Amino acid sequence: MEVVATAKWVRTTARKARLVTATVEGLPVAEALVILKFTPRAAARDVANVIKSAAANAEHNYNLDSSTLRVARVEVEAAAIIKRFRPKPRGMSGSIFKRTAHLRAFVTDDEPTPRNRVRSKIRMPRTVVTAPAAGPSRETPAPR
């Protein structure tokens, strides 16, 4: 069962928050919170709060065991931009964009499913067969 928690109008950019969320998706909640505690980014605190809230929702509303919960995914959406201006020389103004984000954390008690990833083929070294005018042929690695 997936349980969700939402934090709206978080005063961070969506791009910075997505950098943090990529590190904790698929991990157990306790492990994700430890990683976020020691992540040196300001958005880590906001993401940790949303994950804690989702875990608390799962325990309180659905009687799920907190030790079996894991972070299914964390969605980050850009919210409205608060626009300000700063006076500049010669009567002009410079724009200041204070970006905000909406965070949504999903925790689940289901077992993780293995992802079907396409494995890249192992590249074998290419060889070029050269034959001199007379004599046996020999193989040499091709230049890259």
Features:
144 residues; alpha+beta; Ribosomal Protein L22, Chain A; 3 helices; 7 strands; flat
Structural overview:
- With 144 residues, the chain is an alpha+beta fold.
- It has a single domain, classed as Alpha-Beta Complex (Ribosomal Protein L22, Chain A).
- It has three helices and seven strands, in the order βαααββββββ.
- The chain has helices spanning 14-21, 29-37, 42-62, and strands at residues 2-10, 70-78, 82-87, 93-98, 101-108, 127-130, 138-141.
- Strands 1-5-2 form a three-stranded antiparallel β-sheet, covered by helices on one side. A two-stranded antiparallel ribbon has the order 3-4.
- A hairpin with a 7-residue loop joins β6 (127-130) and β7 (138-141).
- α1 packs across α3.
- The longest helix is centred in the middle third of the chain and has 21 residues, at 42-62.
- It is flat and about 80 Å long.
- The chain starts with a strand and ends with a strand.
- The relative contact order is 0.22.
Question: What is the fold's blueprint, element by element?
Answer:
Elements: E1 2-10, H1 14-21, H2 29-37, H3 42-62, E2 70-78, E3 82-87, E4 93-98, E5 101-108, E6 127-130, E7 138-141
Antiparallel strand pairs: 1-5, 2-5, 3-4, 6-7
Helix pairs in contact: 1-3, 2-3
Query: How many extended strands?
Result: 7
Element-level helix/strand string: EHHHEEEEEE
Q: Provide the CATH architecture.
A: Alpha-Beta Complex
CATH class: Alpha Beta
Q: State the major sheet.
A: 3 strands, antiparallel
**What oligomeric assembly is this protein in?**
single chain
Return the domain count. Answer: 1
Given helix and strand content, the structural type is: alpha+beta
Based on Cα principal axes, name the global outline. flat
On the 0 to 100 scale, the average pLDDT is: 88
Strand order of the largest sheet: 1-5-2
The percentage helix is 25-40%
- Radius of gyration (CA) equals 26 Å
Fraction in beta strands:
25-35%
CATH superfamily: Ribosomal protein L22/L17
Straight-line distance between termini: 52 Å
Which runs of at least 5 residues are low in confidence (pLDDT < 50)?
Answer: none
**Might you state the CATH topology name?**
Ribosomal Protein L22, Chain A
H/I helix tally: 3
